[in-house]
TrEMBL record, chain A:
It is found in: Membrane. GO terms for cellular component: membrane. This is Cytochrome C biogenesis protein. GO terms for biological process: cytochrome complex assembly. InterPro entries: Cyt_c_bgen_Ccs1/CcsB/ResB, ResB-like_domain. Pfam families: ResB. Keywords: Cytochrome c-type biogenesis, Membrane, Transmembrane, Transmembrane helix.
From TrEMBL, chain C:
One of its GO terms (biological process) is cytochrome complex assembly. It comes from the Bacteria. CDD domains: TlpA_like_family. It is found in: Cell envelope. The lineage of its organism: Bacteria, Bacillati, Bacillota, Bacilli, Bacillales. It comes from Psychrobacillus vulpis. It holds the Pfam family AhpC-TSA. One of its GO terms (molecular function) is oxidoreductase activity. Its main location: other. This is Thiol-disulfide oxidoreductase ResA. The chain crosses the membrane at residues 9-28. Keywords: Cytochrome c-type biogenesis, Disulfide bond, Membrane, Redox-active center, Signal-anchor, Transmembrane, Transmembrane helix. GO terms for cellular component: cell envelope.
Amino acid sequence: MDKIVCTCGNVNPAGTELCESCGRPLNQETKEKKLVDMRYEGSARRSQTYNKTIIDKIWNFFSSVKVGMWIIVSILVAAAIGTILPQVFYVPATTEADIAAYYERIYGTFGKLYYELGLSDLYSSWWFQTLIGMLGISLVIASLDRVIPLYKSLKKQQTKRHISFLKRQRIYGIGEIEASNESIDKAEEKLKTMRYKVKRDGNAILAERGRFSRWGPYVNHTGLIIFLLGVMLRAIPGFYVDETMWLREGETLYIPKTDGYFLESKEFTYETYSKEESSEVFGEAIDRVGSIAKNYQTDVALYKGADDAVAGKPDELEFVKDSSIQVNKPLKFDNFSVFQMDFRLDELKAMKFQLQDKETQESFGDFTIDLSDPQPIYELQNGYKVEILDYYADFTGFEEGVPQSKSPLPNNPAFLVKMYSPEFPKGETSFVMIKETLEPLGENKHKIAFQSVETRDVSGLTIRKDLTLPILMLGGLIFMIGVAQGSYWNHRRIWIQRLEDGQVVIAAHTNKNWLSIMKDIDAVSVVANLPKYEDQQDLDSKAEKGEGV
Amino acid sequence: MVAVSSTLLFIAFVAYLVATFLFGGAVKSSSSEATKSFERWGKLAISVTIIGFISNLGYFITRWIAAGHAPVSNLFEFTTAFGMMVVGAFILIYFIYRIPALGLFALPIAVLIIAYASMFPRDITPLIPALKSYWLTIHVITAALGESILAISAVAGLIWLLKNIDLTKKSKQRFWIEAVMYVCVLVLGFVAATTTFSLADYKAEYNYVNKEEKVLKMEYHMPAIFGMNESTAITENAMTPLVEMPALVNAKKLTVVTWSVLFGTVLYILLRLILRKRIAAVLQPFAKKANSQFMDEIGYRSVLIGFPVFTLGALIFAMIWAHEAWSRFWGWDPKEVWALITWLFYAVFLHLRLTKGWHGEKSAWLALIGFIIIMFNLVAVNLIIAGLHSYA
Amino acid sequence: MAQTKKQRFYIRTVILVVLTIAIVFTVYSNLTKEKNAVLQVGDKAPDFVLVDMDGNEHRLSDYKGEGIFLNFWGTWCKPCATEMPAMDNQYGVYKDLGVQTLAINIGESDLKVNSFVNRYGLSFPVAIDRNKSVMELYNIDPLPTTFLINPDGRIEKIIKGQMTEQDIANYMDQVKPS
């Protein structure tokens, strides 16, 4: 394809619709239009000009705004479909089989179908992510393809434009006026005071304002591209950590994925609003709802192992700081944040028992078993003692005579014990559960009587590191700058020109807010004598004029 | 303080209603555009609107002081704030374009929104831990502001459509514009149904079995058309539900929706019988006075003003807060997803306008659809799709 | 003209290729996220020190030059209990051939672990990972999980779930120093 040489002498790239310099329409189609399409100043969008190789074809595909819109609409529809049923990560099941069962049980056949189509984990599916990736490609290519020619043609535009360009502007007027030269001078002065950049070329004026708003879309697209880039970086190991831990009061555990940090829970607090403290204001709401949570808080101490420490060694922890983790107030250290996300109240911590005579209930002493660390022997006074033979934290019953425990959590503790007394130096065997006691080896004289429990709370914490955040913030910031630039400012241009035959032409273009540019022209008309203009697109006004209203 | 706050809201509500009629007067007399009568009506209307808005702000501030947190923490508070901001956005746009027809349509919508909001529990709730953050104020207010400015574009679109659709001939457009009117009447139906039954102090308790097979209690405030799964009445003489629903469906909400539709439909039929015209046709003369070109520009401009505000409030601030409170900036929670959908939709709107030249009618329909998406996020996502945001 | 055309072709190709690779990489690594977050075969086995039930300290790096059969288990886990006696038998065979067995219990009490060891008469070293740091280091889920570590200190294989005695023998043979 060849370059197009305009009558004015300017050489335009192939595909140009309006001469970059003087604005003459360059092809028949444009000539036939009543108004010119000013979107890209009639410049040649590169994509539409070359279409030879496969690369060009792919390029043109992504350069098309139409394609971009279809991609967005597909993402939009897919995203909406994903909200019909809860996504897997909000479902109380962990294994694949449980999840499948859950969807079928709760949502029936539709739920089953939803799960089987993969819609229950739609946002992490390959096709959804690919759609977003395609949107990213479209953003890059479509922007590149437009911003360069637009920049060129705005730079090349001349003050004097050809009448064929001016009369195809939406706002246009022509007429004979007296003292036209003087009027043009006045208009120039006035436009300058209105913060227009005015260029003069003989009898022609080009007043321009807010050109930078034309770059808004490209700036905000750049912001979006940076944002998407940030999201992509998460895939690289080390950029992103998302772990959870359950921490019991009194426990010190390694914080997953950190560089040798340990966390001790000192206390978990759960508070609700009480009617007394919160005055009459909240009374009604508390009455209506019952109880309203006020605070979830874990008081913790953060420790760090020695730098050359090896995993597994419990000692040599160096205290770093105390902190109270609340919702909305995470603990922060290095690049990590620890969030209060969940809790379980009143997990069993210790159980207090008494060795008794079964009949007389005479006590031979109390002892307390720490459920996380039961001792083999509990010595009582006067030669009485209790030996713990075995411990079942989460007792579920017997299998072939062997007691079973389904987890290491003390949900239902049971003990196999031997009770020693002066009477029975060889001991009596008993199987102690929370509510009952079994005597597997025959009738005993003594028993272990349950006295009381101590409980503790468990905090559910989330550990997060996200090194992509600064990039995301930067992307968001650039997007906001670009979108504000493009939305809150506009690019206005007013052309005033005295033609060879003495008539004066006024034409104006803005990318938005036509009312405002008309007000600007009216303000100029007050001081300078200018021909009447009309909005060539305002059908209503025309209709009204036609009716003679 | 709480009582003062409620009174101020009521004053605002009445002022908006009055202003609607005043704007109606202004539009009527605008055929003689330069006349004094037009000026007078217009000035009076906007003055009353501003008085209402100041009173509404008074409600907002006094409630803020009373509660100790920004009153945007439950469905009533948020929706009311949204209604207030629609009026605020209208006032802003009015001072740029001075078109009374805009007020005639924007104010009733604000009134409808506030009336709808008032149907939810109005007591001041203390903040749950997740909401205890200054981001609550920043995020919610900015998001609501963005949505309300976007809502103005729907109002402009509506006026454009009412003006330009030929209601004398059967067409798709004629059908859908009347459908929009019908939906507005349904909201009124919801308000009417709720008010009627709460005046009658209707209450009935039922036991039911939920999807986890637990027995729970549910209190109905409207006669149970639909019963919860395996429900049995606790209250004596409670109506036996006509249809029992499976555990998956919240039959109480379904009952509320059904009553609203019933009331709304009856209301709509009555209106049609009295007016002997389509509702759109009744409103059309008021829209006829508006300049299509300006309506189109207002629609576009409010999207341009609202879109950045919405992005900032509903996405960027939302992400920053979500990172502080829930440890991740984005979690595909339904409310988040619908905010994204709203954003994507308006992005498409802007692109289609800019590059495909979708002005006028297409643009007007898109603006209406955008508003429907916003309302869907406000109403349906909170009430139907449960998620982290369903605090109301 | 021909020059710029060629140039354009190359620029476009490069941009498209870069974008495509970035996206394919992201999608792929997101889909396989769970897999690459944890240790993989061929990685160096992270070092740790634990004290066994007899009070002897075991440091992984001290066993350099020997194969290691590293088993993570819990007393409540049935498949663990099932494979323990078989492991004990094979320990007897391979300990003299340079394959060390280490069984790491995840944070249970001394009493419970001792009663378990005694019940099954286990002779290989058993240690308790009290603050779960070794478990986190090795990303253990589910129990039992076994790591085969070769004499170079690299992970040879990761076995999730229960093993038969034949499996155990084969695995130990696999990391036997030559």
